[in-house]
Amino acid sequence: MTGMDITAPHTSRIVVVTGAGTGIGRTTARVFAAEGARVVAIGRRSEPLEETAAGDERIVPMPADITAEGEPERIVHAVLEAYGRLDVLVNNAGIVRSGALGELSPQMITAQLHTNLVAPILLAQAALPSLEKSRGVIVNVSTSVGQRAFPGSSVYAATKSALELLTRSWAVELAPRGVRVVAVAPGAIDTPIGEHQGLTPERMAAVREWQLAHTPLGRIGRPEEVAWAITELAAPAASFITGVVLPVDGGAVVA
Q1: 70, pLDDT greater than 60
Q2: Residue 206 pLDDT more than 90?
Q3: Measured between alpha carbons, how far is 115 from 182 in angstroms, rounded to an integer?
Q4: Which of 29, 88, 159, 203 is spaced 20 to 30 A from 170 at the CA atom?
């Protein structure tokens, strides 16, 4: 793993954050690092990861496609080789491929299933033995639309709903092994996810207008507000919290 300090003290928490090149993942990596953790930032592209890590030696970029065969195991192996432990896994990476029923290609469906659902399962499975040793935490990043109808992006919402069910199921399953499992469900957050799915500026503006109309607090959220929820739920002080899915959505779910 390029740039990883194999002499790092094991007293620091070791955190893996997927989708760390932009948005919520980038901010979460930086907040964990600011709190003293050593963070392995995972993403497909090197350049955004380097920007995430810029100026902070506690963040180490690791380019990887979490959907590729064998990558979850390789990621965990590399982390353990370098640091000898893993304390927190943040399954943040996610993609949206909008389309109504009747317009969905197999590629649109499988890409979202593999990134949003299959990869988090395989990463959690690969990390489990080390998380059990450290009495660690899995944090899954869902979405508030996973708890309500989302016409036009039903597959995306379905993958996130499934991730929430996994969160609750794993929380019960892994509690006897000392591993906590929690999730956050962001609402409308100022991230590049719309641009990443190829929305035009006009379409993105329309999406933001709809989001504002359905967010009681009347504004778009900030990545640092989601990062706060992630890091707080993963903190040792939250040791009696497991199985929760915390909305960070300005009240959208309850409206």
Answers
A1: yes
A2: no
A3: 19
A4: 29
By the 8 A CB rule, do 66 and 119 touch?
yes
Show the 3-state SS of 88-136. EEEECCCCCCCCCCCCCCHHHHHHHHHHHHHHHHHHHHHHHHHHHHHCC
Q: What is the pLDDT of residues 74-121, one digit of tens each?
A: 999 999 999 999 999 999 999 999 899 999 999 999 999 999 999 999
C-alpha 116/C-alpha 123 separation (Å) is: 12
Count of all residues that appear for the chain in the document? 255
Rounded (5°) CA angle 127-91-15: 60
Amino acid found at 64: A
Alpha carbon separation from 120 to 94, 98, 169 (Å, rounded):
10, 21, 14
Residues taking part in catalysis: 156
Element housing 138 (H / E) = strand 137-141
